[in-house]
Amino acid sequence: MAEYYRIIGAEMSPYSVKVRSYFRYKAIPHQWVLRNAESQAEFEKYAKVPIIPLVVTPEGTGIQDSTPIMDSMEKIYPLPSVHPDDPVASFISVLIEEFGDEWGNKWMFHYRWTRDVDQISSAGRIARMRGAKVDENKHAALAAQVRARMVDRLWFVGSNAVTAPQIEAGFVDMLSMLDRHLATRPYLFGARPAFGDFGLWGQIYEMWTDPTTGALIGAGAPNVLDWVHRMLWPKAEGTFETWPSLAPTLMPILTDQVGRLFMPWTCANETALTEQQEQFSVSIGGKVWTQKPQKYHARSLHMLREKYAAAPDKTALDPVLESAGCLAGLRGLNH
Fold first, then answer.
1. Exposed, middle or buried, 133 (CB in 10 Å: 0-12/13-18/19+)?
2. Residue 107 lies in a domain
3. Phi and psi of 242, rounded to 5°?
4. DSSP of 279-303, one letter per residue?
5. pLDDT given at position 38
């Protein structure tokens, strides 16, 4: 039996680097394994679905999907906890983790595969990862193949000519709010990383590595840039804050981004799947958003609702969620 975990992932996968950051913070013995031809046999042995990251445990079992990976590890390695003691802050952290995974991925994927400069950069890096030693002709052919396939998948995150301005305006707004929030603390919920840090950071870290969004972050959000670097090797620098001290700068993010944009979308996506619609439209922030429904996100929403239902004391939590526009969706009352 191995004495460490193996994380099979990729530097350009937000969910892979998210898990790696979590393992580093927890000081969980692990090895980072690049997903390529050399690791393919091991990947196929333990993976149930073709997604990364895949964590292979010392006992020889595979775990996939970044959030369940972290949930599983938290039971085995409870300290240092990534869940604030404050019950409101604790659930808001879980909610932001989900928001980062699902809505933040729209920013990342859209920006990465919309403009030529980002397409060329990203396709080239992915091609080099998959074939580090191939000659330039083979590299160019592989990069072109990657670029064509990924650009063709923009629909998957809802990116199109109509939604593109909404995605980009939303990210610019988020960057400004996030920079204000991080001006007085090293992590989202205080002086140590929380569950929400890992989910949101994974997407923004990837954006920092791309030309267009890297410039936006580097030029206009110095506190976010510091956080991006800090989360590569996160550490506890103090304690978590309570919700009252976080609320002045975190509540605007919760209201404007999570309640106004993400919750209407994820609930509409769930309804579309229930009604077996080929495509759905929903009003988000006063503008119409149209895309094909995504099965995984409905399952993800279900898991989030289970975590909300399990929250032991909602006396202080529910008014915050209600004010932010999140409560009905978490209760499944959106229909």
1. exposed
2. no
3. -90, 165
4. -EEEEETTEEEEE---HHHHHHHHH
5. 86
Residue 309 forms part of a structural domain = yes
**Contact assessment for residue 260 and residue 284, using Cβ atoms and an 8 Å cutoff:** yes
Show the domain range for 17.
5-76
Burial readout 43-77 (b: 16 or more C-beta within 10 A, e: otherwise)? beebbeeeebbbbbbeeeebbbbbbebbeebbeeb
Residues 62 and 93 in one domain: no
Structural domain contains residue 287: yes
CA dist., res. 95 & res. 181, Å (int): 17
Nearest to 178 by CA among 246, 129, 115, 244: 246
Q: What is the pTM of this model?
A: 0.96
pLDDT in tens, 120-159: 999 999 999 888 888 999 999 999 999 999 999 999 999 9
User: In 3-state terms, what secondary structure has residue 33?
Assistant: strand
Count of structural domains, the chain: 2
CATH number at residue 34: 3.40.30.10
Q: Are residues 47 and 95 in the same domain?
A: no
Q: 251 lies in a domain? A: yes
At a CB cut-off of 8 Å and minimum separation 6, what does 93 contact? 82, 83, 84, 188, 189, 194, 195, 196, 197
Distances (CA, A) of 317 to 34, 91, 293, 322: 41, 8, 30, 9
State how far the Cα of 223 lies from the Cα of 124, in Å rounded to an integer.
29
Handedness of CA 294, 300, 65, 151 (dihedral sign): positive
The answer on 276 and 253 residing in a single domain is yes
For the chain, the first-to-last Cα distance in angstroms comes to 49
pLDDT tens-digit readout, 61-108 = 999 999 999 999 999 999 999 999 999 999 999 999 999 999 999 999
Query: How crowded is the C-beta side of 235, counted as CA atoms within 13 Å?
Result: 2
Co-location of 297 and 326 in the same domain? yes
Residue among 72, 47, 55 at smallest CA distance from 4: 55
**Residue at a domain's end among 13, 41, 76:** 76
